[in-house]
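Dear H.,

Thanks for agreeing to be a second pair of eyes. The structure we're designing against is below in token form, covering all 509 positions.
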């Protein structure tokens, strides 16, 4: 195995420290082997992440969510001054330099996770400081940046490497988005994938799928790494995780798809059979990943049928989470609406079991809204258009639904686009396709268009024309230019302002 320069520096430093506590006549070759074993055992983020959890648990006991929220507000108002966070972290016996280092920032983020602070607008500014620290380490790396070794008379506390992977895991749990930070991580590790094992590569891919960042160089290199390397040491859970993450990032090429499927799937005569070691959550991830393909083939739909058959015959009542039920409802709705013939291939017993699962999920409640959706709905109500806001339909979240028309307003905020682009994510495309399959017409409003229209009357005119194109105009145009290809919005239409809204049903572009 080839080791990086940083790992070799760590090994030499560790060796020199251990020699202080070992008699001179000890077998040095045996010692070197023992050091390699310890180093491999504690590589990367596992020990580091556990230590972060311990310190965060101590801090969360002494603090409450209201106190942490006030600290975060003070941190934001002070222009991201790290000394504000030091007041909280200094309460525990956390080792490190004076002030806030990377470890302390991660501990503070884990405290926010344990106290269930969901206001991400308060937590996200910490990413700015973390990004600045990482950028310095990338430009000016040193041995001390990668090794933090402390010796005691009883034993050793080992921390190996900067905790990039611990950061990825914490960001996944908090659902934080900050693409500049992960661009730095991509630049740092995209050419050093050999020192990661498969589990760590699956964590990286899962992180970039959560970040909706498919243009990072590391994603392409991990895809090529899977394509060119042997998968003999790849376990089932990691293979399913990579399979799902690549599908979300639209990087699941046919070659890599079949190669990963060979790890967790057995190919039969009629149906694709998933191995017994694949749990139900992973089975559902495989089914959903096949729906995210641009043009799913018959073989992909056969895999989805096999997954539905496996879930229907192996689930236990009461063990299914609400997120599992939502995703399962989407898969069944997709097959019923768009591939009814293939869905009818399932036997009656399987269909009955599927219906029993769907009965458990009968969610019509409204979910938490956003400012963007509320603004659009307010404009529609002022135009005398009755609408329901933020509801679920067959597992799909509908932003705004008009009461008297089969029209859904899709308010596409930034999380429905890939990072640094205006390209909609694979999941957003799937949702839009499914809403149309339900029989609704769709009017799309993107956040970057709405933000450019500062004048209220411009927004009203935009909504009227978007509604006209969704309901009346039968022409098809490239969805890539949706919104931008709308005709010119007239500023001088004072005579039309006094007309009833029904006038715009006869709008001629």
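And this is the sequence the design step returned. I haven't edited it by hand at all.
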């Amino acid at each position: 195995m080839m080791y990086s320069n940083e790992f070799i520096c760590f090994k030499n430093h560790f060796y020199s420290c251990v020699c202080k506590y070992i008699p001179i006549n000890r077998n040095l070759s045996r010692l070197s082997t023992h050091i390699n074993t310890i180093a491999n055992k504690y590589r990367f983020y596992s020990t580091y992440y556990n230590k972060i959890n311990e310190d965060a648990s101590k801090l969360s006991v002494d603090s409450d969510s209201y106190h942490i929220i006030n600290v975060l507000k003070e941190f934001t108002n002070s222009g991201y001054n790290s000394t504000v966070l030091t007041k909280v972290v200094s309460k525990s016996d956390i080792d490190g330099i004076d002030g806030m280092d990377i470890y302390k920032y991660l501990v503070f983020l884990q405290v926010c996770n344990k106290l269930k602070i969901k206001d991400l607008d308060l937590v996200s500014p910490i990413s700015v400081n973390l990004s600045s620290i990482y950028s310095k380490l990338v430009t000016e790396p040193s041995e001390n940046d990668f090794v933090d070794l402390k010796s005691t008379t009883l034993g050793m506390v080992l921390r190996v490497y900067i905790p990039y992977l611990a950061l990825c895991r914490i960001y996944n749990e908090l659902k934080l988005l900050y693409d500049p930070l992960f661009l730095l991580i991509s630049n740092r590790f995209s050419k050093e994938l050999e020192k990661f094992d498969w589990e760590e590569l699956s964590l990286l891919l899962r992180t970039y799928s959560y970040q909706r960042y498919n243009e990072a160089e590391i994603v392409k290199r991990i895809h090529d790494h899977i394509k060119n390397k042997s998968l003999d040491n790849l376990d089932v859970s990691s293979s399913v995780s990579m399979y799902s993450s690549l599908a979300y990032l639209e990087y699941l090429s046919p070659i890599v798809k079949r190669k990963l499927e060979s790890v967790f799937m057995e190919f039969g005569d009629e149906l694709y059979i998933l191995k017994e070691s694949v749990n139900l959550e992973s089975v559902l991830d495989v089914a959903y990943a096949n729906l995210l393909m641009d043009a799913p083939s018959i073989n992909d739909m056969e895999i989805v049928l096999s997954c539905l058959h496996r879930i229907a015959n192996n689930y236990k009542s009461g063990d299914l989470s609400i997120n599992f039920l939502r995703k399962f409802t989407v898969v069944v709705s997709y097959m019923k609406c768009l591939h009814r013939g293939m869905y009818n291939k399932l036997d009656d017993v399987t269909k009955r079991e599927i219906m029993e699962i769907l009965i458990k999920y009968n969610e019509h409640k409204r979910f938490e809204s956003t400012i963007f959706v509320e603004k659009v709905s307010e404009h529609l109500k002022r135009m005398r258009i009755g609408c329901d806001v933020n509801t679920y339909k067959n597992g799909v979240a509908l932003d705004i639904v008009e009461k008297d028309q089969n029209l859904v307003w899709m308010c596409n905020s930034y999380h429905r686009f890939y990072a640094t682009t205006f390209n909609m994510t694979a999941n957003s495309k799937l949702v839009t396709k499914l809403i149309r399959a339900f029989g609704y017409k769709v009017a799309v409003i993107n956040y970057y268009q709405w933000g450019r229209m500062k004048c209220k009357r411009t927004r009203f005119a935009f909504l009227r024309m978007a509604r006209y194109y969704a309901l009346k105009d039968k022409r098809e145009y490239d969805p890539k230019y949706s919104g931008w290809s709308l005709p010119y919005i007239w500023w001088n239409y004072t005579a039309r302002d006094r007309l009833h809204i029904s006038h715009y049903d006869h709008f001629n572009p």
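Two observations from my side: Residues 1-176 form one domain. The CA atoms of residues 236 and 263 lie 6 Å apart.

Warmly,
E.
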